[in-house]
Design brief:
Blueprint lengths: L3 H4 L2 H10 L4 E6 L2 E5 L6 E2 L4 E10 L7 E9 L4 E7 L6 H15 L7
Parallel strand pairs: 1-6
Antiparallel strand pairs: 1-2, 2-3, 4-5, 5-6
Length: about 110
Amino acid sequence: MQDKEEERSLVNVEKKLSADGFIQDFNVVDGRLHTIGNDSNRTYAPDEVTIVDFYRFEGESNPDDMSILYAIETNDGVRGTISSAYGTYADSDALEFLTKVEDLGKNLTKGHK
């Protein structure tokens, strides 16, 4: 059985997500999610994105050195990840975009009666 700390390492989480098809890297520019590192250069608005899962990580030497890795799927089926730091190193554009996505997700109907 894997050690809990080892299981939660960023590298291991990224390997698992990649094996599950989350292979695209994303970043946020001017309020839109952009694909990185391929020729398609697709962009997405918050309502075109779903956060499938997320993982929080704390720095070993400083608990304030925290980041979060999001597993994301777009409305056209592109699956990938984006990470964002918290605290001093926070990427305000990415956090603002992901907060909008989270807020939209909270309004989704979770099932039928």
